[in-house]
Specification:
98% of the residues lie in helices and 0% in strands. The protein is an all-alpha fold and 174 residues long. The longest helix has 117 residues.
């Protein structure tokens, strides 16, 4: 009988221990879910705060950009007005200078015409011939300068092409 009582006590203890272990497991799971719920809620709150902060930062950036754009547009408008004013002033000064220049040229032309009218035909012919030779000499010098520039450009291009071909061949070889 004593063994029976011991056996029953053992079985009762084992059942109670198993039941306590199951209760502990269930309570532990509930506590874990509560902790994870709090952690999840904290995470979601943090994520929402970050999203709000980023949205506010974007709004501030846009506001600053609008402000800068406004200042830039105002500055550009002022610059454009000043540039137009300067261009008009330049145009007026240029016109005055050209009128003065042409007045001087007109006076020189009139003086030359008077001198030609007083001179004999041989002197006039010689002066005109001198002017024509001068124009021919100027044209010859201009052609010579252009031909030299073209030759120099051909020489430089030839050197550049040779270097390019050599580089391409070297790259292909390597």
């Amino acid at each position: 009988m004593r063994e029976r009582q011991l056996s029953m006590a053992w079985n009762k203890w084992r059942d109670d221990a198993a039941e306590m272990a199951e209760d502990k497991r269930i309570l532990g799971g509930a506590l874990k879910r509560m902790r994870e719920l709090k952690l999840s809620m904290a995470w979601n709150t943090w994520r929402e705060n970050v999203a709000d902060a980023m949205a506010q930062q974007e709004l501030l950036r846009r506001g600053i950009m609008r402000f800068k754009s406004g200042l830039l547009a105002a500055g550009l408008a002022t610059w454009r007005d000043e540039a137009a004013h300067q261009a008009r002033q330049h145009q007026l000064l240029h016109g005055a200078a050209m009128r003065f220049r042409f007045a001087c040229l007109g006076a020189a032309w009139n003086t030359w015409l008077e001198m030609v009218a007083r001179a004999d035909d041989r002197k006039v012919s010689r002066a005109l011939l001198h002017m024509m030779k001068r124009q021919l000499a100027m044209a010859w010098n201009k052609w010579k300068d252009e031909a030299a520039a073209i030759a120099e450009e051909k020489r430089r291009l030839g050197g550049a092409m040779k270097r390019w071909v050599d580089r391409q061949l070297s790259m292909a070889w390597n």
